Amino acid sequence: MATTMAATAAGSAVSSFAKLSSSAVAGAGVQNAAFPRSAAATSLGGKASSLYGASMPYARNAVSVKASSTSRNTLTRAELGDSLEEFLAKATTDKNLARLLVCMGEALRTIAFKVRTASCGATACVNTFGDEQLAVDMLADKLLFEALRHSHVCKYACSEEEPILQDMEGEGFSVAFDPLDGSSIVDTNFTVGTIFGVWPGDKLTGITGRDQAASAMGIYGPRTTYVVAINGFPGTHEFLLMDDGKWQHVKETTEIKEGKLFSPGNLRATFDNADYEKLINYYVSEKYTLRYTGGMVPDVNQIIVKERGIFTNVTSPTTKAKLRLLFEVAPLGLLIENAGGYSSDGKQSVLDKVVVNTDDRTQVAYGSRDEIIRFEETLYGDSRLKAELAAATV
Ligand SMILES: O=C(COP(=O)(O)O)[C@@H](O)[C@H](O)[C@H](O)[C@H](O)COP(=O)(O)O
């Protein structure tokens, strides 16, 4: 309640501030559009400006978290209200990983601006990139490759648009990304997003989601947010893009509770997958709330924000798997599991699936523990989570 009140009070301060300094904000937009190199450098080395203080709507709210022994041995305090850079200094001792996440954050900020100002016709939503007019998903793709090259800590990168590994000429990590998930719903002004996973080393096949050093999504909705999970650091962390262009830590999720909320992807599969039909009928008969946009980023993000629910995308003999393990499913798996949730392809966590080819596809569910048990039992008659739970309680 205290946080909500602080946010409301400061919210009106922010809007009067925005009115007073609309030219400064417009200027920031122009600067964003010009990003990637200069802004990344400023952010990496820069200090919070006075603008930052003026527009900070959330009271600093200390949250104590115990980092795992693989990352830090000391009690680390992640505080709501921290900047992205402050948070990363507490969440990881790996300065290269922090640098990469900051660089990607700068690209996300620019993509948000490009999506917000895209012009949409009958066939595509386009915006400018230098002298070019590009579809926004292609533009996002270019910006992300540029940011990774600029980071100097990325060896290889590939994307849904460019699945062949590209040499980024840095060292430390390799990154796979979906530049603009939901590009077909940009024109309807639904929320869309970027998804990426960061793997240590120089391999993006022969790896699993569990090997990720971090994963994240950028979410372009009424607000722009950057949701980050760092392997070995508890929780999934939401950062809000502020008026001054900085990311501010506004939420930490460490538990996905039980609650009747469902997002049924590939619903057409119920036509010839009787078990999926049975699962959907269960949700309806139990009066679950339907919350589904058809964009995987907002549909999965709502589980992290609401801290409950289930997202399913199930296949059938006539509707094959569409979602890609490397670019979408594994990174979202780490975000959900770090938040205290569970993921499944029907039989195992999606984090345990080996990426054989960059184009591997799979069915998937994300949600609370009991929802994932129900998902596995309904589809395959049994759930490995039950056995794990029984073993844990002995
Ligand atoms: O892949 C996605 C979007 O593709 P695109 O618009 O080409 O960037 C995802 O967002 C999924 O399409 C989505 O979550 C969902 O699985 C779609 O399923 P359905 O509603 O059955 O079409």
UniProtKB/TrEMBL annotation:
Its cofactor is Mg(2+). It comes from the Eukaryota. The keyword Repeat does not apply. InterPro entries: FBPase_C_dom (IPR044015), FBPase_class-1 (IPR000146), FBPase_N (IPR033391), Fructose_bisphosphatase_AS (IPR020548), SBPase (IPR023079). SUPFAM superfamilies: Carbohydrate phosphatase. Its main location: plastid. One of its GO terms (biological process) is gluconeogenesis. Its EC number is 3.1.3.37. Keywords: Calvin cycle, Carbohydrate metabolism, Chloroplast, Disulfide bond, Hydrolase, Magnesium, Metal-binding, Plastid, Transit peptide. Residues 74-252 form the Fructose-1-6-bisphosphatase class I N-terminal domain. GO terms for molecular function: fructose 1,6-bisphosphate 1-phosphatase activity; metal ion binding; sedoheptulose-bisphosphatase activity. It catalyses: D-sedoheptulose 1,7-bisphosphate + H2O = D-sedoheptulose 7-phosphate + phosphate. The keyword Electron transport does not apply. Pfam families: FBPase, FBPase_C. Residues 257-378 form the Fructose-1-6-bisphosphatase class 1 C-terminal domain. Belongs to the FBPase class 1 family. Homodimer. This is Sedoheptulose-1,7-bisphosphatase, chloroplastic. It comes from Physcomitrium patens (Spreading-leaved earth moss).
